[in-house]
Every structure is written in structure tokens, then in C-alpha cells.
Give the backbone structure.
Amino acid sequence: MLQQLFSKLGRRRSSKDVAKERLKLVLIHDRANVSPQFLEMVKGEIIKVIRNYMEIDEEALDIQLTKTVSEEGEGIVPALIANIPIKSVKSSGRSL
Amino acid sequence: MGEVIVITSGKGGVGKTTTAANLGTGLSLLGKKVVLVDTDIGLRNLDVVMGLENRIVYDLVDAVEGTCRLKQALIKDKRFDGLYLLPAAQTRDKNSITPEQMVKLCEDLSEEYDYIIIDCPAGIEQGFKNAIAGADRAVVITTPEVSAVRDADRIIGLLEANEIKNPALIVNRVRPDMVKKGDMMSIEDIIDILAIQLVGVVPDDENIIISTNRGEPAVSENKSMAGQAYRNITRRILGEDVPFMDLAGQGNFIAKVKKLFGFRSA
Ligand SMILES: Nc1ncnc2c1ncn2[C@@H]1O[C@H](COP(=O)(O)OP(=O)(O)OP(=O)(O)O)[C@@H](O)[C@H]1O
Ligand SMILES: [Mg+2]
């Protein structure tokens, strides 16, 4: 009994915390994938902002929802990865 | 004008039929005129859970196709005043009816009844589409497990896409002992993830099996925790503000022990 108690207090995370974390991760993907417009919307907004500063190849712009290992080594975290080919930086960028 | 409430979940076996039976019976015990509609065509079960399986003559498909009049397909529950069941067809499939026919059926029933409780089949296919077609409100059932919560999230999205706003959540089969040990997600955890309004918490309770054995919904007897939980849910559905039961404390047991031993709780 006491031993059980101490193993609980120790390093092993409770299974419900593991469950919750896995759920959060899987739902980020489910929710983004269920709505195909979602990523398109994000893409549109990104283009709008970047367009103010540089000329980009909008056709070739690729954005994806993936997973990556977190920097703190806490396991897998969701990540938005965007690949945005730049054609040229606007001259106004120089004066900043 | 009655209100149409669909009981749905995505994942199978989480307690939709049990909830439909108990909520419907609970509402009739509070004096409402209620009809339970089983839309699980081919896998009907609400009849046996209600103990009305021997009284079926016509079913949902008969009523929709006009083989009989709607009234003829409704089974009156003699134990509970104002409670009726419209059983599903057993030898047909989910494509035997259309969402449009369900809308019409719900409209017809709302003229006579205060509440139309729709028991939805598992899944997101045709049966689900039929079940939600005529609904004004939805109650989403989940259990504290990863797969059930994930499917509930999907269902919530689909309900919203179908203009059924603000679904309410019931978390079924909660085991307080496991929650205390940190081996089951708590209600707070689930609400945190699904971000919808909670309408009830039902403990995992052997009395549900016993009452289902007898065909007598748990809500109608005073002994069980699950019965009490369903009575509370019924009143919340009617808009009453009923405090949530203490299922032996969703309290943070580990944190207390840690304090006791002088550990800092993380
Ligand atoms: N709170 C509870 N405690 C114990 N057993 C329960 C509880 N709720 C449901 N059950 C049991 O779980 C099983 C599945 O319940 P039920 O048939 O209501 O689920 P369902 O969601 O309608 O399933 P399906 O998707 O197949 O239609 C039944 O055997 C039922 O008795
Ligand atoms: Mg069922």
C-alpha cells in the first residue's frame, strides 16, 4: 500500500495525464483535418501579412500541420510548418 | 410545440440508449408528455431497455412509409403516464428512411408531445444524419476514455455544421476511485478538452445493468446513484439549476496526500 503510494508520488505520470495530452494532440489534427477550409484560411492570412514585406511565390506556398519533438523534450507536440518561397524582399525592408 | 432532443455520441456502447430511456422516463415522471424514438434501425434496443419489446406491432419505418398511422406505431408505456415509444424497425437498414422524413416525423410528433427524445445509432453515417435531422437540441454522451472523447469531439463538430448549436454533454460511467488515483480523466479534464456545457455526470453503476435486466429504467427507483444522476439530468434539461452530485469527491486526493507528507504538489 505504502509502496503503491510512493510510486504514485514518484516520477511516473498518471495515466489520465497521458490520456489528456494524447487527446489534445490528436484533436488538433482531427479538428484541422475535418475542416479543409481551415488550413486554406490560415494560408490566406499568412500570405496577406507576408505580402507587406516581401514578394513570395504564392502558388508554391505549402503549409502543413505536423508533429515535432518539443524543445523541452516533453514529447511530441503539434507544429505548423510553412514553406514559403521568397521571390524578393521589398525595398522598404532596407530602411527599417 | 414540443422540443426534439437527440442523444448521440459517435462511439458505440457509451450509453446513448440508456440515457434516452432514463431521460424520457424522467421527464414523464415530472409530468411531461414524452415520446422516445429509436432510430437505430436494424439494431433496435430501446424497446428492451424500456421493457416494451413484447408490445411492438408497427415501427418507425412503417409509420414513415405509411404502412400504418403514426398513432398505431406508438407504444404507450402503462407504468409511466404520458410516456410513449416509437420502436425502430429491426429487419430494415438505415437507408429505409431519409432525413426529410425524419424532419416531418419530428414536426408531427411535436404537435402532440412536450419532448421527443431521439436515440441515435453509433457512427456518423446515414443513421446519424437521420437522427439529427429533426433535432432542436443535442445531448452528447461520452465516457472518460480517449476514444470516446475523441469521437464526441467529432460529433460536436458535425452537430455545429448541421446548425445544432450548443450541444450539452453527459459523461457516463465515471469511476470516482479511478479518478482519485489519477487513472481516469476527471470531468474537468473532459470539459477542458471538449469545451461544451455539462448537463450530467453518471457513475459507472451496476444498477444500470440490473435495471436493464428488468426493463425498468434506473431513474424510476430511488436506490441507485445512477438513478439519482439521471433525475438530476432530467431537471437540468428542463432548465433547473441542479448542483452536481459529489461522486465520492472528484477531489484531488493525491494533492492532499502530498501535502500530508510535506511534498510540494506539482
Ligand atoms: N452508467 C453505467 N454503468 C454501468 N453500465 C452502463 C452504464 N451506462 C451504460 N451501461 C451499459 O453499457 C452498455 C451500453 O449501453 P447503451 O446500450 O446505453 O449504449 P449505446 O451508446 O446506446 O450503444 P450503441 O452504440 O450500441 O447503441 C449496456 O450494457 C449498458 O447497460
Ligand atoms: Mg443504443
Summary: Strands of chain B lie at 3-8, 34-38, 75-76, 83-86, 115-119, 137-142, 168-174, 197-203. The domain at 3-260 of chain B is CATH 3.40.50.300 (Rossmann fold). Residues 171 and 201 of chain B are 5 Å apart (CA to CA). The interface with chain A takes residues 145-146, 149-150, 153-154, 157, 179, 181-186, 189, 192-193, 254, 257-258, 261, 263 of chain B (CB under 8 Å).
